[in-house]
Amino acid sequence: NKRIKIKHLLDSGKVGEQVTLMGWVRTKRSNKNVAFIALNDGSTIHNYQVVADPNAISEDLLKKVTTGACIKVQGEIVASQGSGQSTELTVNTLEILGEADPEKYPLQPKKHSMEFLRENAHLRMRTNTFGAVFRVRHALAFAVHKYFNDKGFFYIHTPIITSSDAEGAGETFKVTTLDLKNPPLNENGDINYKEDFFEREANLTVSGQLEGELAAMALSEIYTFGPTFRAENSNTTRHLAEFWMIEPEMAFYDAEDNQDLAEDFLQYVIAYALENCKEDLEFLDKRAAEEEAAKKADQRSDMGLLERLQFVTQNSFERITYTEAIEILRNSKPNKKKKFSYLIEEWGADLQSEHERFLVEKHFKKPVILTDYPKEIKSFYMRQNEDGKTVAAMDILFPGIGEIVGGSQREERLDKLTQRMDELDIPQKEMWWYLETRKFGATPHAGFGLGFERLVQFVTGMGNIRDVIAFPRTPGNVEF
Ligand code: 4AD
Ligand code: MG
């Protein structure tokens, strides 16, 4: 008989059926008369109880059934006597596929610290927590594609290697095949990139937006979903050097259409996870509750994970302008005793994460769409508003996360765009291809970028972004 997955067995296995399971041993409890093996194959958060009779299975074989070992068992589904499960497997044959020396296997059946598990990222997906996180991550990725596909958006693959710095923040990773110990030099003594692979400087993309805009000027509504790279040296719980971004871009949308889409999209993918990842989210909800309980009373969130996810899908987001936000912040304190560590004195200052969190978690107690930022603190491509001071930007702020989405209506007017590029010293010559969309068949359009890991963090309740991507890339971390 063929192998079935534990998820399938739990959903539709029948008492009396003969089945084969393969998976990794979580624990074994045994005495002279019986051995109970908790088996997990990653298809579900649940382990399946496998019961072996030491008189039927050789002692040598049973000895090798240790935490971490991979085994194959064939047997019959029977009603379970125990309280934890309704059925279990009585073993007829057992085979060791891969041993795991109990003296050396790092994951013991106990609670390990998150730091320890990060150092063992090659094995941590075998724990309940990480199994749940990566199943939810998968479901969210699937929901992203489903949402846009159902709406008639086309998935565009934008380049990973490029020569542009879309955000203009200068945080790119260089791509070169030159021998940097002994590079070719030009007359000025600078590295001669004409001799490099691409015959010019190249870098990893920080955003697929600019190419996405080109696609939207042909296919109307598109989205990208790919890896992006930023060499910002921020060692925080919200930043990765390599993260996945979803960037829809829509012709004929204005700023408000963009906000409506972003809100609907976020509510959809979160509702999808609630509907399709019930057991994993219930597990993560309990886990998050334990973490909350360990915090100081004034830092605890007043909602549980599941409660917060439901709340976000059922209540509309607050929409306010930057100018309104600044007014609120000037007249507020994070709590009775404390002031903000950074006070916003002047209109034009950028918000810090303490301000964003205050607005979302204390003031409005719901997601906030912040719009119409000063043009000085936003990118060159954002559409300038009539006031001459602000641009049609939006950031979406989420509880526990802060900024989860950044977007805007784009500047489609060639004269305004080139004027802004000149002010910011962005060479028009290198961006000729981008400017051509403003010369030929230009139209109002808008889009946004969702940091996928920040979404996964929000939905799973994981406190550190390094724990929602299988192999996090952060300063100093690139081993595996
Ligand atoms: O606000 P950002 O920089 O916007 C853009 O890149 C635009 N081109 C998007 C667009 O309009 N198409 O980044 C968008 C989102 C942020 O809101 C955040 O969620 C995430 O990407 N993000 C990061 N996530 C993890 N690690 C980092 N270092 C991130 N930087 C940005
Ligand atoms: Mg941003």
Automatic annotation (TrEMBL):
Cell compartments where the protein resides: Cytoplasm
Catalytic activity reported: tRNA(Asn) + L-asparagine + ATP = L-asparaginyl-tRNA(Asn) + AMP + diphosphate + H(+)
GO cellular component term, pick one: cytoplasm
EC number annotated for this UniProt entry: 6.1.1.22
GO molecular function per UniProt: asparagine-tRNA ligase activity; ATP binding; nucleic acid binding
Keyword Ubl conjugation: no
InterPro entries per record: Aa-tRNA-synt_II, aa-tRNA-synth_II, aa-tRNA-synth_II/BPL/LPL, Asn-tRNA-ligase, Asp/Asn-tRNA-synth_IIb, NA-bd_OB-fold, NA-bd_OB_tRNA
Keyword Glycosyltransferase tagged: no
GO biological process, one term: asparaginyl-tRNA aminoacylation
SUPFAM superfamilies linked to this entry: Class II aaRS and biotin synthetases, Nucleic acid-binding proteins
Keywords for this protein: Aminoacyl-tRNA synthetase, ATP-binding, Cytoplasm, Ligase, Nucleotide-binding, Protein biosynthesis
Family the UniProt entry places it in: Belongs to the class-II aminoacyl-tRNA synthetase family.
Summary of subunit composition and partner proteins: Homodimer.
PANTHER family: ASPARAGINE--TRNA LIGASE, MITOCHONDRIAL-RELATED (PTHR22594:SF34), ASPARTYL/LYSYL-TRNA SYNTHETASE (PTHR22594)
Protein name as it appears in the record: Asparagine--tRNA ligase
Organism, scientific name: Litoribacter ruber
Gene: asnS
